[in-house]
Amino acid sequence: RPDILDATERLSRFIAQDDWAALRVAHLELLLEPVLEERGIALDDIVNRVAAAGHFAPLVAFADEDFVTLRVGPEGSRAIDAYLRRRGWQETPRAREYLQAIGKSSPKLYEVQAVTPGEWIEVRDRLADDPQTMRVDEQSGSRSLQKYDCFIARVVEARGETMLTAGTLTLTRTMAERVDTALLRNGRQGEERTAAV
To answer: What does pTM read for this prediction?
Structure first.
């Protein structure tokens, strides 16, 4: 989806400048704070380790998607709204709808139920009281994901197409169980902060 890829890249450049840049870094530190404290390492160190393991792009995408939905700007403004207001005119209708959908979404813990490689995956929200399966149009991810794999992601819809956003974090089964346990312990509140577990 070249138009969506271009839109997310322009959004990333937008939040990397002006008043949003410092807020973006502060948010990343806050998001990773539990890991930094547990391991006793600095933010730069964990970023380097993640990059060396080949997971830098999805981590940054996840953190940025979370950041742009938060009311952290002047007078409680959100970066996603500021971008769409100033630069949204240059995006395709589908890309604008995609960005708007990110603004209304939150990350959830999903488990794969079925896969057609190169086409779609069927997932369920592991934390829902009555989880229903949902089909997601996913060409690249469907080539690597298998039944019962778990991941944290935002699922959004644009122009009738259901898709994963770029900030998708894959988990081992053990990590998924830790997320389950932590959220149940906290009364399933703050699901949007799942990645900090």
So the answer is: 0.83
